[in-house]
Each structure stands twice: as C-alpha cells, then as structure tokens.
Amino acid sequence: RQVGGAGASCVSGQDIFKALFVSVPNHAVMHTQGLLLPRDSPIITMAKDMMKMLESVRLDDILNNMQTLDTASISLGEEEIPEVDLRQYGIANFNSTQGYTGKGLVELY
C-alpha cells in the first residue's frame, strides 16, 4: 500500500518536491504550504516521528502538536504575525486525512 500526493507552489527557487512533500513510507504523507518549515526543524521531525506511530496516533493530534510547537513570529512592516498563522498542512494515511490552514494566509495574500 502506498500514500502519495501532488502539489504546486508559487515559491520560486525551491525544488517543489523538497519544499512541499514530507513522507514516512508505508505510514503517511504530509504536504506543507504557505510559510514553509525547514525539513530539519523540530516541528517536522516530531511530525515524522508521530506519523511512524499512526496506529496509535490520530492525524489531528499530529497537526495540533505541530501548531503548539510553532511559536515563532515574523515581522511584516510594523506587525508581528505568528508563523503558525501563515502555514498550511495536509496530512493523509491509508484511512483518513486532516488539514490545517493558518488564519493569516488570506490576509497575507
């Protein structure tokens, strides 16, 4: 059994596969969008570790933990915006899917 994905991005200078796609073969796949997380970030590492245990972890638990760990903010002009509000994730395994869209994405774009 396999889980895969397809995606597109307006981010220039990035390999689309490396920028969007995070997988744990034979378990789950996640797509990221919006403000991208570095693939070596503790948030992505935690998500991949949890995706390996999907028999005992729900997809929404992974997304909730990612949002809890995502405490950085970014300055846009004079405004500080939490980075979690600028992110978007989709995650899927063999049985279900979950998604998250930060509330600041609409305002930013």
Descriptive tags:
single chain; 109 residues; alpha+beta; four-stranded antiparallel beta sheet; two-stranded antiparallel sheet
Give an account of the 3D structure:
Helices cover 28% and strands 28% of the residues. The chain is of the alpha+beta class and 109 residues long. The protein has a 4-stranded antiparallel sheet. β1 and β2 (28-34) form a beta hairpin.
Summarize the structure.
The protein is of the alpha+beta class. The protein has helices spanning 16-20, 42-51, 59-69, 105-108; strands at 21-24, 28-34, 73-76, 79-82, 87-92, 97-101. 28% of the residues lie in helices and 28% in strands.
Which strand order do you get reading across the main beta sheet?
1-2-5-6
Q: What is the number of E strands? A: 6
Q: Low-confidence parts lasting 5 or more residues at pLDDT below 50?
A: none
In N-to-C order, the SSE pattern is: HEEHHEEEEH
Annotation field: number of helices = 4
Helix content: 25-40%
Largest sheet: 4 strands, antiparallel
Into which percentage range does the β-strand content fall? 25-35%
- Using the CA coordinates, give the radius of gyration: 14 Å
Q: Mean pLDDT, as a whole number?
A: 84
Task: Write down the overall geometry.
Answer: globular
Q: Which structural class fits the helix and strand makeup?
A: alpha+beta
Q: Terminal Cα separation, in Å?
A: 37 Å
